[in-house]
């Protein structure tokens, strides 16, 4: 199956699914379900400027983002892992906002794929 | 059995095990430590994939709550988690999320070939003791060797000398162990345990340092003199001068 994407890379999903569209759909639906929940928590943590919570939420998302090839934010997330306490609040807010907007675009892409290929 | 609070990881690991390791049967999954304890008290798995950091407790805390551990464990964690150092210090096995197939293959292979579950139980008990003893002098380093598991109290290690892929661990009573780990591997595990890399070939236990005869050498309590590399001299001198010697 060919999935032209720009924010996500479905190679890993395709590999684990071995051509089984139902299994592929299961992983994509899981992304569509889990990432918005975590984005909501991330937005709340950003509003309360809770550095520890921000790091915990982004840390928790790492495996799924790596699996879905969301490479655009791998460096910012990695920076949060190490510098979440030391970087300025302004920079931290900028990075988290970038992560949120990228993931929202990735979610749009996922919705489109689900609609066009799996409906 | 798989215990992880991330449904994505539980599904992914289950699928990978089912697809690539037909000899491994997943008998259950749990979404937190509490559920893990409940299931483990009724089931009898040979191997548990256990998340290091769950919402309700850490994987180590969960193991500490079990009355009996008659299974082996492979910890699963996100990359560069602080617990990796502790896992390695205790010679336990781990996989990085989102679970690379080759790494999983190697871990399954180690599970089949390595220590018995009794040895693993001892390792876990030792790890729990180490966690309860933040003072390095009370901790015991575990290393997997060709002859089995090697356990060395940190206070007995005087210094470690590296030679490419091997390291010689010199103990206070004159004994020596050679292990197939690089000095950098050991430095990473021991850096926050009062050890100091004084030279590219030497890692020294600070508690065994006797004196600094000159700016480029260290004298140990065993009278052995080790070199300090040029770029480490300032760091060492600052630390040495800050100590109160009896």
TrEMBL record, chain A:
Any one of the GO BP annotations: phosphorelay signal transduction system
Superkingdom as given in the UniProt entry: Bacteria
Phosphoprotein is among the record's keywords: yes
Location of the HPt domain: 20-117
Protein name: HPt domain-containing protein
InterPro entries attached to this UniProt entry: HPT_dom_sf, Sig_transdc_His_kin_Hpt_dom
Keyword terms of this UniProt record: Phosphoprotein
Source organism of the structure: Algoriphagus boseongensis
GO molecular function, one term: protein kinase activity
Keyword Phosphoprotein appears in the UniProt entry: yes
Modified residues (Phosphohistidine): 59
From TrEMBL, chain B:
Superkingdom to which the source organism belongs: Bacteria
Entries under InterPro entries matching the protein: CheY-like_superfamily, LytR-like, LytTR_DNA-bd_dom, Sig_transdc_resp-reg_receiver
Keywords: Phosphoprotein
4-aspartylphosphate found at: 51
MF terms (GO), sorted A to Z: DNA binding; phosphorelay response regulator activity
Response regulatory domain residues: 1-112
Coiled-coil zones: none
Segments passing through the bilayer: none
Domain HTH LytTR-type as annotated: residue spans: 141-242
Entries under PANTHER family matching the protein: STAGE 0 SPORULATION PROTEIN A HOMOLOG, TRANSCRIPTIONAL REGULATOR-RELATED
Name of the protein described by the UniProt record: LytTR family two component transcriptional regulator
Organism in which the protein naturally occurs: Algoriphagus boseongensis
